Amino acid sequence: MDPAIDSLVILADGQATPTNRSEPPRRPKWSDTLQYIANPEKFCRDNLAEYGPIFKTSVFGGTTVFVGSAPANKMAFNGDNSYTTIGLPATTMEMFGEHSLFQRPDLHRDRKSALRPGFTGRMLADYMPHMHQVLGEHLQTWPTDQPANLMAIIESAAFDLLAPLLLGIRLDQGDAVLADLPITTKAQLKQQYKTFFDGFYGLVNWNIPLTTFGRGKRARAKLIDFMKAVIAQRRQSDVVATPDFLSMMLMAQQDNPDGVFNDTLIANQCLLQLWASYYEVSGLLASWMYQLGEQSDIIERLRTEQTQVLGDSPTATLPTMEQLKQLTFLDATIKETLRILPPSSTATRTLTKTVVLDGMVFEQGWNIIAEPRIAHAMEQHFANPDAYNPERFLSEQGEGRAYEFIPFGGGVHACLGAQMAMVSNKLFAIHLLQAFDWQLLGKADFVQFPLRKIKESYQVQLKKRG
Questions:
Q1: Which residues sit opposite 159 in a β-bridge?
Q2: Residue 274 burial by Cβ neighbours in a 10 Å radius (0-12, 13-18, 19+)
């Protein structure tokens, strides 16, 4: 029995299921996968309303149980190497690659422990001067004479923000920095990443150019070649010249050649971290800006907090990590954005044993998906869940408890870059609130799958503050 989940019973192989136990409600339907991909938010909300926070589907094949209640989320997150294994579709696993954190469960803990310093603590603090500089420079170029495509300006800033921190490449200095690499322009690099990402949930596992999966695999191969060339280039120079994720891995490899960081893992991790961070950070920044677009009272409260913590000119000097922690209301607005607009599901597991949770049976072989779109919409977790209310995350109200607020997952597979995403958003907010007022131009449409983000056509009107 897992001591982390007191009400969970794990059945031994061959052990009879206790009597008087129920199964999750709802009969799986052949159309579930198509309906989920078309609109995960609607799929989750409709079934939550009809069946409650645990229900059966056939999403991605077989029996897949969607869960959102805190005990069920806890069960999904904490079963690794005990009663669950990674349950992502085969196409997704191939796109992640054999050296990703989702492969080889026996090596996961060592790999993640070795990677974690690149996104926390001292290294995260060392990233902040670059973040502060790039965000300040980018916002100075944002247009005010005409409406701006929100995702375009955000994604441009995010790519220039993250590539130096992860790879040591200053993409904001122009395409000349890529001249000797297999991909020679930033536009080509971003396009290869888009094709790669689209392949993650290709429904047809055919590695041919006619399928999304096949095109994604080819983009993956090109990106791996690019990463290998970057690594070779860095080895010819001083790998400790800049504080970045790649230099951390290369130095660790130098110190322990037989350790976690072999060449294949380093290339694969460079590929995945730039991909995950880019989409995660850009989606969060745009969603946060969109959520606050018609919340003038909240914006003024954020500016007041900034002045109290950072002074009258908050962008004049680099904030310290301690000062960022003091921006508690800003932190609450980011969390509320993640609650209302979670980018994706946060855990997909396959049960390796039959378990019984609170009298409900989950059969060996079933898949489990922990869904923020369910957890974050439950009145048992959040009062008036459809309302945008950052105060719910302040200590006075105290919502957002563990396993109820799950935008970054949980357990051993919790998002490695969660702290970087939060720090990036706080620094972005400091610059944005100082530089601009902005007006939303209508209601935004969202790309729904595989990550939820505002569509590229959506525009805002920016106005420089005096």
A1: none
A2: buried
pTM as predicted: 0.94
DSSP 142: -
- End-to-end C-alpha distance for the chain, whole angstroms: 62
Produce one character per residue of 329-353: b if its CB has 16 or more CB atoms within 10 Å, e if not: bbbbbbbbbbbbbbbbbbbbbbbbb
Which residues contact residue 94 at a Cβ distance below 8 angstroms, ignoring those fewer than 6 apart?
205, 213, 217
| Confidence tier at 106 by pLDDT (50, 70, 90) | low
d(CA 444, CA 10): 45
CATH number of the domain residue 281 falls in: 1.10.630.10
CA-nearest of 448, 414, 420, 150 to 290 is 150
Pairwise CA distance, residues 80 & 78, whole Å: 6
* 17/22 Cα distance (integer angstroms): 10
Residue 97 included in any domain: yes
Closest to 283 (Cα-Cα) out of 424, 189, 169: 424
Q: Quick one: CA dihedral 419, 420, 421, 425, positive or negative?
A: positive
Residue 2 within any structural domain of the chain: no
SS3 labels along 189-253 = HHHHHHHHHHHHHCCCCCCCCCCHHHHHHHHHHHHHHHHHHHHHHHHCCCCCCCCCHHHHHHHHH
Q: Within its chain, how far is the Cα of 246 from the centroid?
A: 20
By residue range, what is the domain housing residue 280? 8-464
User: Can you spell out the DSSP letters for 281-307?
Assistant: HHHHHHHHHHHHTT-HHHHHHHHHHHH
Note whether residue 306 is domain-resident: yes
At residue 437, what are phi and psi to the nearest 5 degrees?
A: -100, 155
- Largest interatomic CA distance in the chain: 72
Domain count, the chain: 1
Residue 195 and residue 207 in contact, taking contact as beta carbons nearer than 8 Å = no
Confidence at 141, pLDDT banded by 50, 70, 90 = very high
118 pLDDT exceeds 80?
A: yes
Residue 238 is predicted with a pLDDT of: 66
Kindly state whether residue 57 falls inside one of the protein's structural domains: yes
Task: Tell me: cis bond preceding 450? Omega within 30 of 0 counts.
Answer: yes
